[in-house]
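In this supplementary section we document a worked example of the pipeline. Step one takes a protein sequence of length 334 as its only input; no multiple sequence alignment statistics are reported here. Step two produces a three-dimensional model, which step three serialises into C-alpha cells for compact storage. The input and output of this example are shown verbatim.
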Amino acid sequence: MKKRFVALMMAVTLMGAGLLNGCGSNQTATKDEAVTQETSESTDSKDAQGEKKYVIGLSMNTQTNPFFVDVKDGVQKAADELGIELYVTDAQDDPAIQMKDIENLITKNPDAIIIDTCDSDAIVASVEACNEAGIPVFTMDRESNGGEVIAHIGYDAIKSGKIAGQYLVDTLGGKGNIVELQGIMGTNVAQNRSKGFNEIIAANPDMKIVACQVADFDRATGMTVMENILQANDKIDGLYAANDEMLLGALEAIEAAGRLDEITMIGCDAIDDTLEAIKSGKVEATIAEPPFFLGKAILNTAFDYLEGKDVEANVILDNSLVTADNVATLVTKE
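The serialised model returned by step three reads:
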C-alpha cells in the first residue's frame, strides 16, 4: 500500500520540519507519519483544544435500513466525541453508486475512508483506488474480498446463523418444517449467516427446510417472498430470516395469513422494531448485533490508527441470542 502522507504539526523556531515514514504489517498497522507542514495560519484542521482534527469519509451502503441508520449514528457519535469531521455518502444499496461515492470521497483527500459495502466483490476496485491514492481503508460489517484494508470490524456471521439454527432446533424439539430467508448473497455476511444456519439444520435430520429464498435484507421484499411461501406451504413450523428487516416483512405476511401462532420466528440484528415485536409476543427471538456500537468501534479504530497506535486487522464483536427472557435488559445504543 502506498504510504499515506498527512500533516504533522511540530514546534519550529526557524524553518523546516523533520520527515518520518512508517508502515503497517498484516496483523497490526500504525499511521504513517507525515511530511506536509502546517503553517501558523492553518487552523482549520484543529479542534477547539488545538489538537489535530481529522477528516474521514464514510461510505454507507444504505440509509433506509434501520440497522445501517444506527451504524451511521454510532460512527457520528464517536466522531463528535473525538472532534472528527465526517463526509457521509449513501449508496442506496447500489454497488455502482457506491463506487462513484468513493471516487468523490477520494477527491476530498480525507485522512481515512470507512466503508460499509454493498457487495463484497464489487467493492474491491474502490478499495484498490483508495490504496492507489494513499488513503487508509477501514471496513465494517461486510468485508471486501480484495484490496488492502487496515482493519475490519464486524460480527461472527457464521456464529449468528448457528445460534438461529440451534434456537429453532431447541424450540421445536428437533423436528419441523423450516423457512429460510436469505440476505444479499453477494455479501460475506449473508453467505456466512446462511452457512452457519444450514450446518445446524443439516445435523438434525428431522428438521426440513421447505423453502429457502433470497429477500435481499429488505422488509418489503421479505413480505412478498413470505406471502408466496405461505401460499405454497400448508405447514411451516419455523422461520429464520437473516436480518430483522426481512423478519418484520415476513411477520406482516404471516399475520395477514392468520398463521402467527403456528410459526416460531427468529431474525438477526436486534433493531428496535424487532425488540418491540418480541416484547409483544409476535416474534420469539433475534440475535443481537448492535449496529450503533459497531459504528462507534470502527470510528475509534480509525482514529487510533491515525494517532499512530497499533490496531487489530480483524475484530469480531460479540453477538448473542435475544428472547422474551432478556429483551428488557438488552442495551443496543447509547
